[in-house]
Design brief:
alpha/beta, Arc Repressor Mutant, subunit A, 6-stranded mixed beta sheet, 5-stranded mixed beta sheet, 11 helices, ROK, ROK family transcriptional regulator, WH-like_DNA-bd_sf, ATPase_NBD
Length: 403
């Protein structure tokens, strides 16, 4: 009777909204999710966070140990009596997100718990072609996997992507009319999910970054190119042809006099981030260029904001990493162009120039073709965590463009 009261008290100690839902999730999967998010727990701690009985939890943990996805050891509890048995999730496989653009390639690798194991960025120096595209992708997957087994890869590219096919890319035109999905899967020998770069960034910020799942959000990619994407309650709003929320698809909003073929031209060929940092340091020419850029952006963006009335506006891309107060500058420009006194909350991206790679990573986790963990499905993590390492995990290859 005393043990029953103790278990009931432990269950009440965890609020209902923090307890793992049991609907359509096996006991093993409930235990896996908790161990992934908390790293290590005792069976009693798992019981306090679920509605599972202790015998069910014990049986589930034995199954997970047998499948080698969980380990256990005895640890002192700090109280009188025997040490307690603690269970730890063993996330052996890697998940990888890759962002390939015209100028640069970036990637991020995590384990299945969402712990960041490697980042990679490099200039794209090979002559653009289908062959070099495949070679760049194969190289980056090999580098960030570091010899570990890979469970899935998400790939984000510029262009209109629908049903994992590039319908139109003006930035990488060799992707047009090329059904490369199966070709790449054969090359890297793991499940692949293909998405648009800015939509991937929006998804990454909504699910694993500065946005929130329960809000309407417009993500603005700031760099050489400007592009936008919309998420509603954490899900992409793509429209019939995959272009919903893209403010530069209409004639008259394709960009501005400072832009050539979609690429904004910064003073003396500097990168967007370098220009913004010089502006923040007081360089008059750079400051004027940044203001001109944001004023040009505010015209089409204000119309998008007026139509959608989003709760959150996330600034992503390399330019979002500047110390210059871009959010304040942009808010001022938007206020001047709106007839109502309402603005979305303007937030800086959590992942900066890696937002697209993070979104691609999220699609690798949620890809229906991704392999199960032993016999069980493990959903995408709720957040990414930095590794317990004293050094930076970024792998650099040549000087990169901050695009």
């Amino acid at each position: 009777m005393a043990r029953a009261r103790s278990a009931a008290s432990a269950a009440r100690a965890v609020p209902a909204d923090q307890r793992t839902p049991a609907l359509l999730v096996s006991p093993e999967e409930q235990c896996l999710i908790l161990l992934r998010d908390h790293r290590s727990l005792t069976a009693s701690a798992i019981a306090s966070r679920t509605d599972l009985s202790r015998p069910t939890i014990d049986a589930a943990l034995r199954s997970l140990e047998t499948a080698h996805v969980v380990t256990s050891d005895l640890r002192p509890t700090g109280k009188a009596g025997r040490p307690g048995r603690t269970y730890t999730f063993v996330p052996r496989d890697r998940m990888i997100g890759v962002d390939i653009g015209a100028h640069a390639i970036r990637a991020i690798a995590t384990d299945r718990a969402g712990r960041i194991l490697a980042r990679y960025e490099a200039d794209r120096v090979r002559e653009p072609s289908r062959d070099t595209f495949l070679r760049d992708l194969d190289d980056v997957v090999r580098i960030v996997s570091e010899g570990a087994s890979i469970a899935g890869v998400g790939l984000a590219v510029p262009g209109i992507v629908k049903s994992q096919k590039v319908k139109l890319s003006r930035v990488l035109p060799y992707l047009n009319d090329w059904d490369f999905h199966r070709e790449i899967e054969s090359l890297i020998n793991v499940p692949l999910f293909v998405s648009n770069d800015v939509k991937a960034a929006a998804l990454g910020e909504a699910r694993l970054g500065a946005g929130t799942v329960d809000s309407s959000q417009v993500t603005v990619w700031l760099g050489r190119r400007v592009s936008t994407a919309v998420t509603l309650n954490g899900e992409l709003f793509e429209g019939a042809n995959g272009v919903a929320g893209e403010m530069t698809t209409a004639v008259g909003t394709q960009w501005t006099p400072g832009s050539v073929c979609g690429d904004w031209k910064w003073p003396e060929g500097r990168s967007p981030l370098e220009t913004a940092e010089r502006a923040h340091a007081g360089d008059a020419e750079s400051l004027a260029s940044v203001h001109e850029y944001l004023e040009a952006l505010a015209d089409p963006l204000s119309r998008l904001v007026a139509i959608l009335d989003p709760e959150v506006l996330v600034l992503a891309g390399a330019l979002s990493e500047t110390s210059a107060p871009l959010a304040d500058f942009l808010a001022t420009n938007l206020k001047e162009r709106l007839t109502v006194p309402f603005l979305p909350r303007i937030k800086r991206s959590a992942h900066g120039r890696y937002s697209t790679a993070v979104g691609a990573l999220y699609t690798a986790f949620t890809n229906p073709s991704a392999p199960a963990l032993a016999h069980w499905q493990l959903p995408a993590p709720l957040t990414l965590t930095a590794p317990d390492l004293p050094t930076d995990t970024t792998i650099h290859s040549t000087r990169t463009h901050a695009s």
